[in-house]
Amino acid sequence: MSSSGPDTLASDRPSWQRRRLDPDHSLGLRLTLAVAAAFLVLVPFSLLALLVLGAWAPLHRLDMSVTDALHGYALDHPAWVVVMRVWSEVFAPMPLRVAALLLVIWLLRRKARRLAAWTATTMVVGGLMGPLLKLLVGRDRPELLDPVARAAGYSFPSGHALNATLAAGVLLLVFLPYAGRGVRRVVLWVVAVLLTVVTGLSRVALGVHFASDVVGGWLLGAAVVAATAAAFTSWRAHVGLRPVRPARDGIAPEVERHPDAT
């Protein structure tokens, strides 16, 4: 005579370790992705923010040495300053937000409503976090005797670096399905990396941010993209769409062929 008591029923249930990554148990999957995203947000960025708040001497010395070196180069090379100013203005937060808005409109015209919502959410959430954290940290910008550029407001994290990272992440995850596997994919990655790196470096080169401000913006932007992409991937599992690897496939590869799919 077989037994079907509570112990037997409990043994038939997947363990928590299995449920937390099982697409058939969407709550466990969502919780796991949320914890992973929170880890990305809290650990590297929070550590850097604490070092900035505590005025950690080694970080301050490193920031000042980078700032002094780049400022000296800028004073000796006016053309370099012009290039950095133009880049910094073209890829400032507001132009990137306008570009994101145009992308949202394009996605809506293709009936990719959820992908459009993800794009808007990523840019808005990251865009709101930047000014809030500037106020909370309250770090002053570099003070230079002969500045080549000026900027208002607090310094940490860099809004330019943050928004460039958000825009680059959106660019990659939306357009990877269109890039194929050849040269276009390489070009897309190069454009995203250049947008992120050069925009951040331009702010240090102009003497309006410390290097740690820019790194903080990069970390926060990457964390926001990771968190919203995790939420979108969780939704895909919930509605039964095939699993994807965002860094390889984008987050909605079916949109490229079937715009109504998401």
Automatic annotation (TrEMBL):
Source organism superkingdom: Bacteria
SUPFAM superfamilies with a match to the protein in the record: Acid phosphatase/Vanadium-dependent haloperoxidase
Phosphatidic acid phosphatase type 2/haloperoxidase domain residues: 112-229
Ranges annotated as spanning the membrane: 27-57, 90-108, 115-137, 157-179, 186-206, 218-235
Keyword tags: Membrane, Transmembrane, Transmembrane helix
PANTHER family xrefs: AT30094P, SPHINGOSINE-1-PHOSPHATE PHOSPHOHYDROLASE
Protein name: Phosphatase PAP2 family protein
Organism (species): Micromonospora orduensis
